[in-house]
Amino acid sequence: MTQETRYVVGHQQPDTDAICSSIAYAHLKQEQGENVLPARCGEINPETRFVLDRFEVDDPDLLEDVTGKQIILVDHNEYSQTAPGMRNAEVVEIIDHHRVGDVETGTPIHCRIEPIGSTSTLVTKLYREHGVDIPEHVAGLMLSGLLSDTVVLRSPTTTDEDRNIAQELAGITGVDVEKYGRELLQQKSKLGEKTPREMVTGDFKEFEMDGGTVGIGQVETVTPEQVLEQRHAVLDAMHEIREERDYIFLTLLVTDLLEEDTEAFFVGDRQNVFEQALDTTVEDEQASLPGVMSRKKQVVPPLEEAMK
Ligand SMILES: [Mn+2]
Fold first, then answer.
1. How many angstroms is it from 234 CA to the middle of ligand 1?
2. Residue 123 Cα, ligand 1 centroid: separation in angstroms?
3. What is the whole-number distance in angstroms between the Cα of residue 119 and the centre of ligand 1?
4. Buried b vs exposed e over 31-41: b needs ≥16 C-beta within 10 Å?
5. What CATH number is associated with residue 49?
6. Less packed terminus of the chain by CB within 10 Å, N or C?
7. Residue 63 to residue 44: CA distance in whole angstroms
8. CA distances (Å), 52 to each of 127, 135, 180, 273, in order?
9. How far apart are CA 39 and CA 123, in angstroms?
């Protein structure tokens, strides 16, 4: 009997780590003789497009709905961030580097979650643990996921393991970490033709907190002025989105990757809680967050704590 196809899927609005770790992990499983394919549940962003072209790798197939399918989750483990139909899919494995979320399974599964810089780092470790050689193009993909998520090893989420594995993957790929990393940052910053609404929702996550849902978007860029100059249009879009989705509040983190600082737009209620949690002051719906680069590590935990 042939094994049913399993799909490796990252989160919605996939970033480079989500796409690259799904391709890399599917390849590892295939090398182990399993019937596993990479997939995605959203459009490829410009940075990831650059990476796939660079290493000449095909796009993973788009899954519109995963109902009834066997799924390996990478780079997320929360229903609010996942593909449509996931509550009616069979999650058979989780590989992630985020907090433990709310995905439930009917039977025990393999689950690997570590507090490291990227899912790609974790997938690299799995290649090592299983003694499977990493092909050059897969090394390139995993290096890209790692450098994208850690902002070229600058984010506070970066660990020594990430630094070591980045060097190792760069060696296999034959690129220089800093030089290739800067190329990636340039791609990440290409806002191109994005509308203000797309700037807000491009990299966006919802969090269930005491009292309701909070929306947190992030733009990581080397040219933050491109967003800040359009503050009125961006704030209008944020008010619209908040009304449609009934958030307690909505914030957009505009993160300057070179200065390692963030300017946040804020709309909604509980402004005092936001200010207190992040030790800042909101003036005209905008606040400075010096030294803040990571939504996951520096923004979500204090907000959750303060909302209690
Ligand atoms: Mn990631």
1. 26
2. 11
3. 5
4. beeeebbbbbb
5. 3.90.1640.10
6. N
7. 13
8. 20, 15, 14, 41
9. 16
Whether the CB-CB separation of 214 and 249 falls below 8 Å is answered with yes
- 215 and 274 share one domain: yes
On the question of pLDDT at 25 being above 70, the answer is yes
- The predicted model gives 26-45 an average pLDDT of 97
Whole-angstrom Cα distance, residue 225 to residue 227? 5
Verify that 250 and 162 share a domain, yes or no: no
pLDDT band at 191 (very low <50, low <70, confident <90, very high): low
Residues 295 and 255 reside in one and the same domain: yes
Report the CATH number that the domain containing residue 303 is assigned in CATH.
3.10.310.20
Residue 1 scores a pLDDT above 60:
no
Measured in Å, residue 296 CA sits from the centre of ligand 1 at: 10
Q: Which two tokens stand for residue 13?
A: 């609005």
| Dihedrals phi, psi of 158, to nearest 5 degrees | -70, 135
For residue 97, the CA-to-ligand 1 centroid distance in Å is 7
- CB-CB neighbours of 296 under 10 Å: 18
C-alpha–C-alpha distance, residues 308 and 250, integer Å: 17
Expressed as residue numbers, the domain containing 118 is 6-187
Asked whether residue 264 is domain-assigned, the answer is yes
Question: Token digits for 201?
Answer: 């929702």
* Cα 46 to averaged position of ligand 1 atoms, centre (Å): 16
Res 259: pLDDT: 86
- Phi, psi angle pair for 81, to nearest 5°: -110, 5
Interior/surface letters 14-23, b for 16+ CB within 10 angstroms, e for the rest: bbbbbbbbbb
C-alpha of residue 51 to centroid of ligand 1, in Å: 15
1 within some domain:
no
pLDDT the model gives residue 252: 98
Quick one: which of 97, 105, 14 has its CA closest to 61?
A: 14
**28 CB contacts (<8 Å, ≥6 apart)?**
123, 126, 127, 130, 132
Ligand 1 center to 75 CA (angstroms): 5
Number of folded domains that form the chain: 2
Residues 121 and 59 in one domain: yes
